[in-house]
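Hi team,

As requested, here is the filled-out complex form for the prephenic acid run. I kept the field names the same as last time so the parser does not choke. Let me know if anything looks off before we queue the next batch.

— J.
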Amino acid sequence: MTATATETTATEKTENAEKTGKAEKTAAEKTGARTDEAAGVITGARERIDSLDDRIIGLIQERMAVSAVIQEARISSGGRRVNLSREMEVLDHYRQALGKPGTTLAMTLLELCRGRI
Ligand SMILES: O=C(O)C(=O)C[C@]1(C(=O)O)C=C[C@@H](O)C=C1
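And here is what came back:
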C-alpha cells in the first residue's frame, strides 16, 4: 500500500507520538492485519460497513415511526398497542430470510417499535 497525501505514515505516527507523548495506532494495529495490503482492504471495507450501518439505523428509525402510526391508530380506536398475530408474521418473515438469528433480530426490532411487553 502506498501512502497518499492524506495518510499519515507509520514513521510520521512514531514522530507524532514522540512529540505529543500519545501513541497513534498504525492501520495494521487498528485492523489486526499483518500486511499493509490487507490493512487497506479492511479499512476500505470498514468504511462501507459504517455507511451501511448508518442506513440500517435510518431504516430502523423509519420503521419505528411507521409502527407508531399503526399503534396510535389502534389505541385511539379503543384497541391494544400489541397485535400478537401480526408479530408472529413479522417474526416468521425474518426467520425465513435469515434463519434463527433472524427471529432474535425481529424480536429486538419489535421491542424498539412497541416497547417491552
Ligand atoms: O402491524 C401492527 O399492527 C403494528 O402495530 C406494528 C408492529 C410492528 O412494529 O411490526 C408493532 C406492534 C404490534 O404488536 C405488531 C406489529
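Two things worth flagging: The radius of gyration is 23 Å. Confidence is low (pLDDT under 50) at residues 1-5.

Thanks,
J.
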